[in-house]
Every structure is written in structure tokens, then in C-alpha cells.
Design brief:
The structure is a homodimer of 297-residue chains.
Chain A (H helix, E strand, L loop, with lengths): L1 E5 L3 H12 L3 E5 L3 H9 L3 E3 L10 E4 L4 H7 L2 H6 L5 E4 L5 H13 L3 E4 L2 E2 L1 H6 L3 E5 L3 H14 E6 L6 H29 L4 H8 L7 H12 L8 H12 L9 H18 L7 H8 L13
Parallel strand pairs in A: 1-2, 1-4, 2-3, 4-5, 5-6, 8-9
Antiparallel strand pairs in A: 7-8
Helix pairs in contact in A: 8-10, 8-11, 8-12, 8-13, 11-12
Chain lengths: 297, 297
């Protein structure tokens, strides 16, 4: 089985490496030579040309946003795939955009799965990501060997595109708000002169814990803001959440978190790790967190 | 060893029952006859008179707020305890108030632990709560048999009162924001016509999960707002969080969540389960959640 992975960021790289490990024939596509060489180092073949996906049976898409997904899923690409190929779209996008891309892929006779993922880079690299998928049974069947290789759990949410993206929208609401909460909690702990590593150790055993607190908290305690996932990703994703309802009044937490990520981005932190919003909150209180590049001023 | 437990709410009852199970001689104090009979049904002795704590070796305090803690910890009570007794104050209160109560207890020659707890009613009932404790070594030593009975983990955070309450403040920031986030996520899922039980099932395996999402989410999916912990508790606790810094700008998520709990309380939902803020958010969007008492109008 010939597999393509478009986009070798943290989740795409994890999926591509997991597919190689499962013995599949994988071609990874990325415009960024560093991303390609990370995949090559892990034993994969890579290219910057979508034409190298010619004849692929399954193509997973891990680009950044709906626009990029639309750009790569052009008719010329779709028609170059195997006649019964399945496109597995793992991009976080608004539910209505998932439907539009599905229509395009199906128009050219290929199968489509609306299949956003979650679980973080570590689980992705272990082939244990969670996949929130929807599509026709034939699409699940075609993609099965790849899903088996990359996913710890595949939730089958329906037979038309949309439910996968809706579930991812709910997940991103929680994820974004929880990152902002973790940042705020750690910034408050610093204001109260607490030992930040002790805070991590205690809270993970208490009712205040979250997946994001346990994952991003250590970045803040260590002052390590190298981007595992960037501030700008949540500017985008909480924007998608905000568009999922006509009633923004029903999303006060999302709105506040989006404002925080947006302000951080406007202050030049867009390409930093999303936990860097803690720096912005601590600075407001005149408190310096570890690793603050504006420190000692 | 004679143990007193003042306040038989969800956490206090769990602690009292766990202490009985460990073979300790426990007297539970509560003004509410229903709370007392729940403890009697579980094999405990109870009373509505603080004088029944005369001669106690360890007294755990589980009342609702700092004012009640100050009211019960009067000199007359403190002096009635065993000469080397330890007061274990498990109430969530501002760090500076923990110090004031410690000073009072120590003035009358007894030991004091600043010991807020977390982990929820289920773990409390199993004797597995987490305790964030600070106090002199003699206080830890005196309270040890009781802590062993009620706690899964005891974090020893310092030898003066304050660090326990500071840690609890950080925990409540996260807990309150996560309840609001869970409510907002479930209300959005309902707006998108999603199956709410499926949302719970999928998200718990994704990066959007939190202790509170997994604990409170089912209340919302089932429309069951009987108070396991009330909206008004988080009006109080997020108030304590807000007072922990002079810079409210560093607490945007807390501020938004506090506003939400306060509005719910103002609309008559103060005694409902804290997850009932989901009803308020869904109503704003004209969407009816299961179990909404204002439904079908």
C-alpha cells in the first residue's frame, strides 16, 4: 500500500513515521527542507512535489488550515491518485469546509474521510493519536491499514463529513481554554512566589488538572517556549470555534482565550509555543517568569 | 485517637467516613440533620454541638468559607481539645486568612495544619483525597493517623501556614475555569446537534480533556443538576483567586469564569450543581439542554 502524508509538522511527522514503522510505503511531502530531513532521518522518503503522490492509495493531509488543504487538494492531485484512493483529511477546519472538500474529492471519484486528530506530538510519534472520523464505510475500509498504523483510537462518528470536524471544534475549544488557564495559573503561582515544579507535581493529582496543564505546564516551569505548537495555531483554531455558533455570548471562555492568544500574537509571540501566553500574563503583573526573553529589562 | 470532623458536606463526609473505616473514634459535627444522618447511616457518631469535640486529638474543619472557619474555631472550642491536639483546616480560604487562624490556634497552645483538599467526593469517600498541607513537623506527626485514613496523597508544602492555601488557590483557578469550559463546550456541542454522550466518550481520549470535563460533563449530558458542588462555591472560590493578586489583568480567564458563575447565581442557580452554568450558556444561544427546568416554555 502506497501512502502519502502531506505536511510533516508535529502531528503529520508522527503519523508518517508510524506508517513507516508499520511497514507501509510512505512518501512525506513538505515545502520545508528541515521537516523533510526530520522524516528522512526517521527512515522515510520525502519530497516537496505533490506529483510524487501519483498512484497513492491513501493520502493523509496534515497542513495548517482550510486554505492550505484546499490548495493541495486540487483536481490534478486527486486524479493522480489510485482510482480507489482515499483522502484522509486531518486538518482542523470548520465543519462546513470539511463538506466542501469532501464534495470535491468525491467529484473526482475518490473516497474521503473527515478525520481530525488529537493527542499531541508524543502520542502521534508512537502511532497512538486519536482520530475523530466520519465518512462512508468504503473510505474507512480503504484507509484501515493506515489508521491502524497511526491511531490508538479511531472514533467512527458518522457516514458523512462534518461530525469529525464538529468534534474537533469542541476539542479545540477545551484545549485552547485549558492552555490559557494553565498559563494564568502558572503566572499566578509565580506572583505568589511558589515553586513552579511543585505546583505541577501537586496539581496533577488534584481536580484542577487537565491534559493541557500537564503537557504545557512544564514548558512554563522550565521557560522553554520552543514551538511544539504555536500561539498562532490557537488564534486560528479558536477562530474556527467562534464561527461554529451565531451566538458569541454562548462562548465567553473561548472569546477571552482567543483575545489572549491574539494579543500574544500581536506582540510578536505568534511563532512561540502556545504556552508563551503565560509570559504576557505575568508581565501584566510585573512578574518575570523563567525564560522570558524580555526579562532583566 | 479521638477525631472530630466539623462540616459533613461532600468532602467532610468522605473524610469522616474514611476515618471511621480506619478504626478511629470519630465525632461528626453539622447543623444540618440530613448531613448528620448521612454520616450516622455510614456508622458514624454525630452531633450539632461543638462541645461534643471536648478532648479530641485531631479536628478536621470542612466548613464552607473563612468566616465559618473563624466562627467555629473560637477559643472556647480550641481550649476544649486535648492539650496536644491538632486542628487540620481543610477549608478553601485566602492564604493570609490561613495564617490568622493558625496564629489563633497556636495562641491557645494547639497545633495547626493549613490543609486544603482536592479530588472530589468519590475519592474523598474512598479515603483517597489529595491534601495540600503546610505546618510544623509536630502538627504533621499528630495528624498522621487521620491523614493516613483520609488521604491518597499528602503534599507537605512547608512548615508555616500559607503554602497549602496558595496551592489550593491555584487549583481552584483551574477547577473553576475548567468547569466553565466544560459547560461552554457541552453547550456548543448541543448547538451543533451533537450526541452529548459521544462527545464525553471521544474528548476524554483527546487533548481537550480535564478532570472537571470528565467529572462534570456527565451531569450536563444527563441534565442532572442536583448539587454535588454548588455554583455558589465557585462564586466564593474564584473570588478568593481574584484576591490573590493586585493585578486582575493577569487573570482574564478567572475573571470571565467568575462573571459566569456570578450571573448564574444571580439568576437563581446558586444552589444548583456548578455544571448548571451550561444551562445559562445554552439559553443565550436559544438552545435547550437536557433537564433544563426552564425548558418547554
Amino acid at each position: 500500500m502506497k501512502v502519502g502524508v502531506i505536511g510533516l509538522g508535529s502531528m503529520g511527522l508522527g503519523a508518517a513515521v508510524s506508517a513507516v514503522r508499520a511497514g507501509l510505503d510512505v512518501m512525506g511531502i513538505d515545502l520545508n527542507p528541515e521537516a523533510r530531513s526530520r522524516f528522512s532521518d526517521a527512515g522515510g522518503q520525502s519530497s516537496n512535489q505533490l506529483t510524487d503522490l501519483c498512484g497513492a492509495d491513501v493520502v493523509m493531509v496534515f497542513v495548517v488550515n482550510a486554505q492550505q488543504a484546499s490548495d493541495v487538494l486540487q483536481p490534478v492531485l486527486i486524479e493522480s491518485l489510485a482510482p480507489d484512493a482515499c483522502v484522509v483529511n486531518c486538518v482542523t477546519l470548520a465543519p462546513n469546509k470539511a463538506s466542501a472538500l469532501a464534495d470535491r474529492v468525491e467529484k473526482y471519484g475518490r473516497l474521503y474521510l473527515d478525520a481530525p486528530v488529537s493527542g499531541g506530538a508524543v502520542r502521534a510519534m508512537q502511532g497512538e493519536m486519536s482520530v475523530m472520523a466520519a465518512g462512508v464505510p468504503a473510505a474507512f475500509e480503504r484507509a484501515q491499514p493506515v489508521l491502524d498504523a497511526v491511531a490508538g483510537k479511531v472514533f467512527e462518528l458518522g457516514d458523512r463529513p462534518g461530525p469529525g470536524s464538529r468534534m474537533k471544534t469542541v476539542n479545540q475549544l477545551l484545549a485552547g481554554v485549558h492552555i490559557a488557564a494553565a498559563a494564568e495559573a502558572m503566572a499566578l503561582a509565580a506572583q505568589m512566589d511558589m515553586d513552579m515544579h511543585q505546583v505541577l507535581d501537586v496539581i496533577k493529582d488534584c481536580a484542577g488538572t487537565s491534559w493541557m496543564f500537564e503537557n504545557r505546564g512544564p514548558h512554563i516551569a522550565e521557560g522553554d517556549y520552543r514551538p511544539r505548537s504555536m500561539v498562532d495555531i490557537f488564534v486560528k483554531d479558536l477562530g474556527i470555534v467562534s464561527e461554529a455558533t451565531d451566538c458569541l455570548d454562548s462562548l465567553p471562555m473561548t472569546t477571552t482565550a482567543l483575545e489572549l492568544f491574539s494579543k500574544a500574537s500581536a506582540q510578536g509571540m505568534g511563532k512561540m509555543d502556545d504556552s508563551a501566553v503565560a509570559l504576557l500574563l505575568a508581565r501584566r503583573a510585573g512578574c518575570q517568569l523563567p525564560g522570558d526573553p524580555e526579562g532583566q529589562s
